[in-house]
Amino acid sequence: LKSPYLVLAPKSTLRNWVREFENWAPCFKVLHFHGDKDERQRLIDEEMAPDQFDVIVTSYEMVIREANAFRKFAWRYMIVDEAHRLKNVESRLRLAVQTLQYEQIALLTGTPVQNNTAELFSLLNLLDPTLADEVKSRMFMFEDITGLDDRSIQQVLRQVEVSSLALALKGVSQAVREKITRNLSSRAAEG
């Protein structure tokens, strides 16, 4: 499998992530990137070279502090554990993550998006920034979903469905994708 891969997680779960790679994917060379300033510099100088690792497991704080080192790589896949931490588009973590190059990203979270579409859009934008304007135009007609009646909530859910489908259709030809999206949009508007 072509690497490199990056796992961003809370500091308290880093060892668990490393252990899971050891148990389930021992073929990967995993670099546990964490430590004080001197240790981080040693890791950057000696172990953070493309042929030295397949996966880096690190904390949010480390990617913020050592963003320049992480920006040197085009990550094939990035996993963000507890991704609800990325909802705030102005947070240091979000800004650091946005500067990284990655082909694919998985956002793991068990924390629900709170009562506004801005948080949902923020996470969707990380999944596929090219669809940002399309999704934004659909979602921001409902700035705050608290107090909406059932019909309005159903409209919001249909818009999320259409936007999610657009993400899934990313690999389909542009003409087919536009037709499917247009058809679903008209159905959602009729709703």
What does this structure look like?
With 191 residues, the chain is α/β, with parallel strands linked by helices. It contains nine helices and five strands; from the N terminus they run βαβαβααβαβαααα. The chain has helices at residues 14-24, 37-47, 60-65, 67-71, 92-98, 117-127, 132-139, 150-168, 174-190; strands at residues 5-9, 30-33, 55-59, 74-81, 101-108. It has a five-stranded parallel sheet with strand order 2-3-1-4-5. α8 runs antiparallel to α9. The mean pLDDT is 80.
Percent in helix: 40-55%
Largest sheet: 5 strands, parallel
User: In percent, how much strand structure appears in the residues?
Assistant: 15-25%
Overall mean pLDDT? 80
Q: Care to count the β-strands?
A: 5
Assembly state (oligomeric) = single chain
Alpha-carbon distance between the termini? 44 Å
Which word captures the global form? elongated
Model regions low in confidence, pLDDT < 50 over at least 5 residues: none
Give the structural class. alpha/beta
Helix segment count?
A: 9
Order of H and E elements = EHEHEHHEHEHHHH
- Within the largest sheet, what's the order of strands? 2-3-1-4-5
